[in-house]
Design goal:
By secondary structure, this protein is mostly helical. It contains 13 helices and no strands. Helix content is 63%, strand content 0%. Helix 1 packs across helix 11. It is elongated and about 55 Å long.
Length: 219
């Protein structure tokens, strides 16, 4: 299979499996999405979705959020991990949104990445899911699968993002990155991986990855 055929195969399989694509993080507007994505760093979406209602019950907009102290926020979000950094970030960015952006989440990568605790991946998720701007946020699932599928060298997430954007059509990025995440969780996880159920890797996967899988299975 050529690289182009592989890419088309991936797209077709993902659209067959996920014609409707659920959004992983519960939110109701760009602000609550931004906070949820920030909280999801090194945590799971399931855990974040349990904690965000408790936080948003007290503050679901920057004006109410700055009325809480950093300690108040930290106490609520402790279960998602990294709470000292995340609570400072949530409080700090809420203040900046009020001071610089009339309380609204800005619609540009540059302005988002200037906010405390907001990196490129968080900005990409918000641009994609809140504003429909083509972006390809790379999480651990996408990074792992792009390597397993021999579509990227796995060097780092920056390279993986470049490769994904180069290979996949821009108009599909916003749906595709979510489809790959769901596929990674269901069929191609890091642990407890069953290659027989992972049709994409089984068909187009990197040979060394497939060989290692069978070697480890025997041992």
């Amino acid at each position: 299979m050529t690289k182009k055929e592989k890419v088309n195969f991936v797209i077709n399989e993902l659209y067959k499996l996920y014609p409707e694509i659920p959004i992983p993080l519960d939110h109701k507007d760009p602000y609550t999405l931004l906070i949820a994505v920030l909280m999801s760093a090194q945590s799971t979406d399931v855990r974040v979705n349990k904690i965000t209602p408790l936080l948003f019950n007290k503050a679901d907009n920057p004006y109410d959020m700055v009325k809480l102290t950093i300690e108040d926020i930290r106490d609520i979000i402790k279960p998602v991990g990294l709470s000292p950094m995340k609570s400072k970030g949530i409080h700090g960015l809420s203040k900046i949104l009020i001071e610089k952006h009339n309380g609204l989440v800005p619609q540009s990568f540059e302005a988002l990445e200037e906010l405390p605790a907001v990196g490129h991946k968080t900005a990409s998720v918000v641009m994609s899911q809140a504003f429909g701007v083509p972006a390809f946020p790379v999480d651990t699932h996408i990074h792992r699968l792009m390597y397993r599928w021999n579509l990227s060298n796995g060097k780092n997430v920056v390279q993986t993002e470049k490769d994904a954007k180069r290979l996949f059509p821009k108009e599909l990025w916003n749906e595709l990155h979510l489809q790959i995440i769901w596929y990674g969780r269901q069929y191609s996880p890091a642990r407890g991986w069953d290659l027989d159920k992972d049709i994409i890797t089984k068909t187009i996967g990197r040979q060394s990855v497939i060989q290692d899988y069978y070697k480890n299975k025997k041992s």
